[in-house]
Amino acid sequence: MKQSPTQVLSPESGDTVLVARYLTYVRVEKRLAERTLALYTLDLAKLTGYAAQVGVELPAVQHHHIRRWVAQMHSAGRSGRGIALILSGWRGFYAWLGREGLIATNPVQDVRSPKAPKPLPKALGVDHAVQFADFKSADDPWLEARDAAIVELLYGSGLRVGELVGLDVQASGQARGWVDLAAAEAHVLGKGSKRRIVPVGRTALQALSRWLECRQASGEPSTPPPEQPALFTGRNGTRLTAQSVWQRLRRRSQLAGLATPVHPHMLRHSFASHVLQSSGDLRAVQELLGHANITTTQVYTRLDFQHLAKAYDAAHPRARRKGKDH
């Protein structure tokens, strides 16, 4: 019967002696923590088991053995990060064998773990995005007008939170960005100090106009003085911070009854995903988001496919019958 990869060889085996010597070395010489030592022990037990399955001693393990065992771990469901940690433990063991003069080359050298799939950006569904944008809180009207304008710009124009809080009420020589209400455009300073112009929709323009009216009604001038030109301010009149925007959106999503806490970049992702779903124009979405490289924008095609796959699973007769006997 084949031995499990997690089983070590018998106490008298040469491999077991080598592993024990190495673990003593890292415990005494490297003064590793007990937790780290325990993980090394498990990793080397796995290595010993794999070597036993193919009938080779640890010093005789070759590069192709390591690659095969990586493939086995990956097919068994172990994550790329988990495999990388195991390889790190194995690599250290073989480096020690090399220093001891027991091997000529390290078989783990240059072996990499499988890349973990890049997680998809979190985006709201269209219905939830509209629910969030349309929500009217019972907050102070001043706060509600400001927060509604923030949501409309983040979701309606796909701004980064840094671009949003950098907006001034009007253009000036010092302005990082501003909104031209007459032209329905936002001028923003993005990553790498690159400027771009994005359209501002009718609903966002209305929300911005209400916010400026509220500012004026509260005694704060709609066109603030040069020393404080920020479009979005706190109660103390200073420029709103990105952290404050995160907190306000999280609170608003809870009040709106959304299951997922909303953050600024989620609204940017939602903007990109929904524009791409409607238009299919990847280049246009790239320009709107200010991505320097189209490959950065292509992640939204995966989101779009995910949306289509869900629609298929929910609607197609063959998809609905999946797993049923007929």
Structure description:
This protein has two domains: 86 residues, DNA polymerase, domain 1 (Orthogonal Bundle); 188 residues, Intergrase catalytic core (hpI Integrase, Chain A, Orthogonal Bundle). The protein has 326 residues and is mostly helical. Strands 1-2-3-4 form a four-stranded mixed beta sheet. It contains 14 helices and four strands.
Count of helical stretches: 14
Shape: elongated
Runs with pLDDT <50, length 5+?
1-12, 318-326
Biggest β-sheet: count, sense, barrel?
4 strands, mixed
The N- to C-terminal Cα distance equals 40 Å
What is the percent of helical residues?
A: 40-55%
Rg from Cα: 29 Å
What's the mean pLDDT score?
Answer: 81
Q: Report the β-strand fraction as a percent range.
A: under 5%
Q: Within the CATH hierarchy, at the fold level, what is the topology of the largest domain?
A: hpI Integrase, Chain A
Strand order of the largest sheet: 1-2-3-4
Structural class: mainly alpha
The oligomeric status of these chains comes to single chain
**CATH architectural label of the largest domain:** Orthogonal Bundle
The fourth-level CATH homologous superfamily of the largest domain is: Intergrase catalytic core
Query: How many distinct beta strands?
Result: 4
Q: Which H/E pattern describes the elements?
A: HHHHHHHEEEEHHHHHHH
Q: Write down the CATH class of the largest domain.
A: Mainly Alpha
Query: What number of domains?
Result: 2
